[in-house]
Design brief:
The chain has about 290 residues and is mostly beta strands. It folds into two domains: about 1-90, no CATH class; about 95-294, no CATH class. The chain has one helix at about 215-220; strands at about 1-5, 15-20, 25-35, 35-40, 50-60, 65-70, 70-75, 80-85, 90, 95, 105-125, 125-145, 155-160, 170-175, 180-185, 195, 205-210, 250-255, 265-280. The strands form four sheets. Strands 10, 11, 12, 13, 14, 15, 16, 17, 18 and 19 form a ten-stranded mixed sheet that branches. A hairpin with a 2-residue loop joins strand 7 (about 70-75) and strand 8 (about 80-85).
């Protein structure tokens, strides 16, 4: 996993020291160079890439625990370090890999994170836009991976065992690893998203059911030599010059609370997850298992 860092005073071939600090650990990487990359925000009128700007691409250090993490970018040539506070960045748990099959998954002792990075909606020039922002309360992050290999329509059901977290419409957003908003799961998404209350059952959280439509065209277009083949030199773009929105990993950002109204504390957390997946064009009835069995 890489982290892309942008700053107005970055120049090509500068070298930087980057320090990650979180969960009581501090890891520093030195002599990291900036490089010219296509600018996602300065594009042609048709959305194709236009200009390149310096970007610092850093590999997330192995061994960092899940949870809020600060990033400090420093150099002798920069009097004041660039600091990304822990309230604006979090290391999440390893994505749970799903496949194009009907099955049940049990992720015991799953290392997850609660942080304060959330999705904010605002109006600019009369248009609704979204951005990542700092939330006043903790957000739980759960990630599903392997979805670049899932092309058929599927339904996902998920709950947490032994953790009575509650949520409803408007409490969950989905982002990708690029930080792009995929979807806000409000009441208008009731045709493919359903939160199911388990209030009064302290042995389990609420459950959500999420239907993902067919990605057959997406899979075909993005395969090798397809019209939307990803640029191996810059995975934010296709080889045809259009921007790439990655659907391989979906991150569910959940504003959950307990029955008494309290929210999960910010920091690392360990969960026992129950997940069911179903390929929707397979025959057979959809099991109404409550996912709470071992």
């Amino acid at each position: 996993m890489t982290v892309s860092i942008f700053a107005q005073d970055f120049a090509v071939n500068q070298t930087w020291q980057v320090t990650f600090q979180g969960g009581g650990q501090q890891i520093t990487q030195a002599n990291l160079p900036t490089s010219l990359q296509w600018d996602l925000w300065d594009t042609n009128a048709d959305g194709t890439r236009k200009t390149k700007t310096p970007r610092l691409v850093v590999t997330l250090p192995a061994g960092l625990p899940a949870g809020p993490t600060s990033i400090t970018v420093s150099s002798p040539s920069r009097p004041t370090p660039l600091v990304i506070p822990a309230s604006e960045f979090a290391v999440i748990g390893k994505p749970i890999t799903v496949a194009e099959q009907t099955t049940k998954l049990r992720a015991k002792n799953y290392k997850a994170a609660v942080g304060t990075v959330a999705v904010d909606t605002y109006i600019q020039n009369g248009q609704e836009k979204t951005r990542l922002a700092v939330a006043p309360e903790g957000r739980l992050y759960l990630a599903l991976g392997g979805l670049d290999k899932v092309c058929k329509p599927m339904t996902f059901k998920a709950l947490i065992k032994d953790n009575p977290l509650r949520f409803s419409y408007g409490d969950i957003s989905i982002i990708n690893t690029q930080g792009f908003l995929i979807e806000d799961l409000g009441p208008e998404t009731s045709d493919h998203f359903t939160p199911r209350s388990n209030a009064g059952h302290p042995e389990k959280s609420d459950r959500f059911d999420y239907w993902r439509h067919s990605f057959a065209d997406y899979c075909t277009e993005h395969q090798a030599h397809g019209p939307k083949e990803i640029d191996p030199a810059d995975p934010y773009w296709h080889l045809d010059g259009t921007p790439h929105v990655d659907y391989a990993t979906l991150i569910f950002v959940i504003a959950a609370h307990r029955d008494n109204g309290s929210t999960p504390p910010v920091g690392p957390t360990t969960l026992n997850l129950r997940i069911e997946t179903k390929v929707e064009n397979e025959s057979g009835d959809w099991d109404n298992d409550d996912l709470s069995t071992p």
